[in-house]
Each structure stands twice: as C-alpha cells, then as structure tokens.
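pls design
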C-alpha cells in the first residue's frame, strides 16, 4: 500500500518540504510514497516583500515545479487534524469537505497577525499579513490622493517596531511623496513599546535604524502601546492621540491555529516544540516546520525565528526527515548555525548583519544591492527542472 506524506501549506517551508521529500524518495528509487500539498492556492506568496508596492506581482506559480517533481497538489484549506485516525479534514475551493489520510504529516501552515487583542484593530487597522490584506493597504494608500488635505490624511501610524514595522515605515516617506506630491507635509510615526527605536536588536543595528529614521523623517514614539484604533486614528495607553487615516498593525504574530489541535507543548506564539529531526514532541508521525515550529538552530540556545530565512531550511529538513522515516534511512538533524539579517531602510538604503549578535557588515547602497538580490532572486522557487530542483532541495545544499 502506498504511503502518504501530507504537507499542509505552500509557503516557503511547505514548498521546500514537498521538494525535499520528493528528492529523497527519488534518490532511494521509491515509487511507493505519495507527496501531497494542501494549500489555498498553488503559488508561493513572497511575504517578506509585502511592504513594497505592486504587491499583486509578488507571487510565483508552483504547479510547473510540482508537476516535474511528482508532487500532488490539492487546492483547499485544512480545518481539522485528527491525530487518532491520522487524517485531516479539508475544504476545497467550492466549499465541499473532504478527508485525507496520512502516514506522515508535515505542518507548514504558517502564521498570522493577531488583530483581536486591541480594540478597533480588526475593524480599522491595515496589515501586511497576507497578500489580500497587503493589497487592501496598497489600494488605500493610493486613494489618499483623492481625499481632502488634512493632518490625518498625511499621517501614517505603524504599530510595532519589529522588522516588518521598520521596513514598512522606512518605505512610507517615499511612497507618500509619490502619492501625495513632493510638497505634501507627511508624517510617519512608529509606536514601539521598547525604550528606544530597534531596542530588541544589537546596539550596532539599532544605531543604523535610528540614523535612517532621522534622515528619512520617520518618528518613533517609544515606551508606548496602543490602547485602541478607530476610523480617525490611534489612541495610546498614556492618552496620547494620533489623528491618522492609516494605521498599520504589525505586532502580535501567532502560529497557525492548527497547532492547537495537536496535543503537544507549544511556545507563547503557539509554535509546536520539535526535536532535532523536527518531529513534534509526542507525535513521531507529525513534523512541524516554518512558523509553526519551535526549533533549536544550534546548541547555544538559539531558536528559529518566524522568517523565510529559517522557513526555507526548516522546510528542507522537515520534508527530508518525513520521507526518511518512511524509507527507513537515517534522518538529518536540523541545524542552522548561521543567522543573518538584511533590513530594507527605504531611500536610505539597507543594513546587513551577521550572527545572533547582529554585527553590522554592510549599510546603505551596498546592503541595498544585497537585499534586492535576496528578495528578488534567492528566496524564489527554483526553476521547473527536476534535477536542479532536487539539488536545491537537499538540506545540505548551499543557499546561493
């Protein structure tokens, strides 16, 4: 009887898990394993670029790649995981429900921004969480030009000073000039609960963010939290009011709700604890990867972050090890010793760091060139050519 590897999600982790599993099955001349991906659409959505304009173009089709590598695709959404029967319930594009069994499940269902814990965010704030919501934000920004001149129209509030918030905020001065004209008096404000801009990062990186903010005119309100959001702006917990037609929410990222259906330890972001082979603790038949996995990257206490940098390699190891467990071959323990950041800082340029201590190696135009190369080339799927795709899907292949 054919064995079933079922992968939930077609983001960076899910796509690479599918290719890696197919690679190992092919390498072992196995014709007895079916590899199936269930996802809402057969495309990779390049989420790290959703702060950019023309967001609808930031996708890459996956069916040509899946076809040449023998990966099956089901268009739909998984609603329930039945660990006792080793099956999932999923809804197709027509709304019809189906069941799909698995011998190995690779959960790669990603993450989402929690918009429910602050009053008014769900109704009035914008986000970059998904392609659809980023497209709504882009359309709204374009519509500002047709609104009457006011401080609220010209002010954008970015809630959260993490990487997503920083990249969005640094993009906005130039974007607003293009939309409203070079003479418009615009204001971009980042609300950050930390004591200084970029406070969760190294001093070197923090200073670069501060320099870029000053040069671009991006304001920071620190030691602050949002109390509520409404159609006319944001109110902070200290009572300060910021009039704005555009409030962008970038905080409170949580792992997919599907993780709660698996009886296993999770971290505060809902990520499932996994062992070195990315198997969920207490469930040897389930592998977690990408944003749903709380995975140690090394023996120094570091854990994978919710970034495509980690999702790509996590996916390769998870798919490989799911297939290995069915083929009776040795798994490959996940390790990702090298950690880098490359942060887009709008018209100022970018900043590139290496190591968990975030040592700044490149800034401004040098870093910008690297950033463009990473997000427009390196993180995209391989070409639909079987041999090349399998070579890149090897967990130990160099990421170049």
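designed seq:
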């Amino acid at each position: 009887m054919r064995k079933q590897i079922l992968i939930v999600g077609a983001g960076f982790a899910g796509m690479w898990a599918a290719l890696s599993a197919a690679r190992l099955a092919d390498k072992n001349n196995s014709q007895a394993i079916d590899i199936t991906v269930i996802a809402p659409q057969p495309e990779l959505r390049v989420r790290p670029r959703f702060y950019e304009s023309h967001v609808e173009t930031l996708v890459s089709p996956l069916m040509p790649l899946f076809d040449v590598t023998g990966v099956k695709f089901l268009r739909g959404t998984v609603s329930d995981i039945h660990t006792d029967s080793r099956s999932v319930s999923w809804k197709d594009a027509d709304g019809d429900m189906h069941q799909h069994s698995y011998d190995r499940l690779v959960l790669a269902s990603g993450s989402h921004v929690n918009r429910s814990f602050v009053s008014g965010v769900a109704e009035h704030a914008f986000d970059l969480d998904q392609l659809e919501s980023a497209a709504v934000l882009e359309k709204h920004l374009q519509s500002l030009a047709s609104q009457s001149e006011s401080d609220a129209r010209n002010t954008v509030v970015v809630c959260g000073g993490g990487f997503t918030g920083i990249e969005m905020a640094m993009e906005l001065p130039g974007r607003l000039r293009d939309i409203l004209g070079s003479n418009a008096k615009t204001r971009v404000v980042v609300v950050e609960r930390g004591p200084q801009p970029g406070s969760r990062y190294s001093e070197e990186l923090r200073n670069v963010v501060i320099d870029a903010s000053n040069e671009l005119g991006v304001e920071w309100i620190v030691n602050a939290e949002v109390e509520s959001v409404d159609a006319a702006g944001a109110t902070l917990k200290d009572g300060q009011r910021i009039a704005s037609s555009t409030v962008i929410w970038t905080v409170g990222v949580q792992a997919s709700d599907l993780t709660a259906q698996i009886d296993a330890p999770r971290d505060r972001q809902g990520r499932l604890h996994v062992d070195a082979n990315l198997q969920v603790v207490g469930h040897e038949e389930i592998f977690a990867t990408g944003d749903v996995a709380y995975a140690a990257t090394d023996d120094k206490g570091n854990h994978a972050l919710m970034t495509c940098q980690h999702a790509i390699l996590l996916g390769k190891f998870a798919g490989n090890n799911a297939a290995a467990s069915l083929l009776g071959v040795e798994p490959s323990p996940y390790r990702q010793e090298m950690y880098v950041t490359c942060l887009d800082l709008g018209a100022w340029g970018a900043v590139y760091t290496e190591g968990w201590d975030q040592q700044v190696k490149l800034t401004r135009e040098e870093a910008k060139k690297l950033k463009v190369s990473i997000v427009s080339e390196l993180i995209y799927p391989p070409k639909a050519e079987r041999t090349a795709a399998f070579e890149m899907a090897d967990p130990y292949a160099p990421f170049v």
